[in-house]
Amino acid sequence: MDADGAESLPAPLTPGLFTQGVGDQRGGFRFLTITSNSNDPVTISKISLKITFMPHFDDLRDYTGYFSAQTSGFHDPNFLTKLWYAGAYTVQTNTFDSREGRQPCPGPHGWANNASTGPVDGPVLVDGAKRDRNIWPGLSSRFLECGFLTRLWTGDMGISTHTQFVSTNDLLPSKNSLVVMFSTQDPNTGALQYSGPPINAHGSDTYIAWSLIGTHSYFLYTGDLGFVKTVWANYTKALNFLQSHVDETGLVNVPTEFQNDWGRDGGAGHNSAMNALLYRTLITGSDLATHLNLPKLASQLSANATAVKAAFNKLLWDDAAGMFRDNETTTLHPQDGNSLAVLFNLTQSDEQVQSVSKGLTTFWTDIGPLSPELNDTIIPFVGGFEVQAHFVAGQGERAIDLLKKKWGYMLYTPLSVQSTLVEGYTRNGSLGYRAQAGYNLDHAYTSHAHGWATGPTPALTFFVAGITVTSPQGATWAVAPVLSGLDAAEGGFETPLGRFDVKWVVKNRRFTLNIRTPKGTSGTVILPGTGAVKVDDKAQASRASASLQLGGGEHVVTQDMD
């Protein structure tokens, strides 16, 4: 299944015109390789290509979002801008018709892309343009395919849905993919599968959590409460299934049969990443319950989240190392569990946040962090969460440094296509992802357009440009740029309420911020310094940490940088 095959055609063709069928299309390719098995001359003409990804878009360049910033100390000053658009384009290639999934047992030339990805008609968001072309709300799988035990590391909606939002505001594929995942629910236990058809992989607590978190993300960006009501019975049953794995410690004790994750080792027991995901699931579930006018359930889920946070710190915090352990029985401090703990606010003090942010740098190499929970592997999925964790810590220059090391390698290495983002690679930079561990994932099999690698795209919008929505559709919002050693940045996106744009510049020790948000909305602006502040040329009271409340519309905020 890992061979890169070829399609054989007779020569000459009769009647002379060949049109490739949908199932025989490779997916994600922008080039054609033709090889003759004969010494006879061959004439080829009138070659045309139709792009099949994002079939519901008339113009693939119709981005509703944007980002721009220049960086120093790197060979390409436009690197951050290029990276943002590479992530946006990668997710576009991961969006296609629900009837064009990858067959798990392909035909004689090694692939077939005419499988149904589930009970929806329309675009779906999948993990990769070529492989696996399957819906994965979380991350990866181990499954028996055509008689071969194979482990796959695949893309996930936990990152790519956010990339969709900030780049195209196209959430229909995410919605359809969520519909597919809820359709896989076990009616007895409430468990969801961790991939959709045709792979239909089972056995992952983390993937169930990602589906539930993704439901909230879709609602936050669209305000589609009707969809939430449609899946609510499935949602609560799946959430109860996860909570049934909480033991006397107050944390999920992941059963061995539900430990599958993004390809990491050691996912069973009181796994830190899973429990960070449980916490986030409870927080977002409480918010959904509030919007559904279920105050009792909202309060209960919030209380459960508080209990998980306390237990997480009690059982897993390693004060000597200043990081969270993978579980209470190991000295391993994982990249995923620590990054998610900061990003999802499981820390209890800023000292913890700073300690974890610094500790994560001990995994770094010149081309990215080596994930200690998966030997010899540099994994863009987890790296996307680490980048955000550094921004949350206010360590923007550290986050940019990580982007330069890891995504700089991915974008500029001659091993990549230099326009989309790869699935993963090893310590020596080889794209033979995990081949050293005995798995047959060579260069031909490793995905070169993988949605889970696009974490920098939303991170640059949310943290560097600094604009986020804090309630459905952006009725409330926040602007809090992390300057990150840059002189200027700008970015924006759309929601059903309208445009959200931010542009800031630091010049002559003055920070100037231009904000445009829809009228009728309101937001909080958190400024980077402590100097004198003006809003629309009117002086404001200085404060140790400048925080302003503004209504929608256009505003200019300035601050003296002491």
TrEMBL record:
<dbReference type="Pfam" id="PF17389">
    <property type="entry name" value="Bac_rhamnosid6H"/>
</dbReference>
<dbReference type="InterPro" id="IPR012341">
    <property type="entry name" value="6hp_glycosidase-like_sf"/>
</dbReference>
<protein>
    <recommendedName>
        <fullName>Glycoside hydrolase family 78 protein</fullName>
    </recommendedName>
</protein>
<feature type="domain" description="Alpha-L-rhamnosidase six-hairpin glycosidase">
    <location>
        <begin position="153"/>
        <end position="361"/>
    </location>
</feature>
<dbReference type="InterPro" id="IPR008928">
    <property type="entry name" value="6-hairpin_glycosidase_sf"/>
</dbReference>
<dbReference type="Pfam" id="PF17390">
    <property type="entry name" value="Bac_rhamnosid_C"/>
</dbReference>
<feature type="domain" description="Alpha-L-rhamnosidase C-terminal">
    <location>
        <begin position="476"/>
        <end position="539"/>
    </location>
</feature>
<dbReference type="InterPro" id="IPR035398">
    <property type="entry name" value="Bac_rhamnosid_C"/>
</dbReference>
<dbReference type="InterPro" id="IPR035396">
    <property type="entry name" value="Bac_rhamnosid6H"/>
</dbReference>
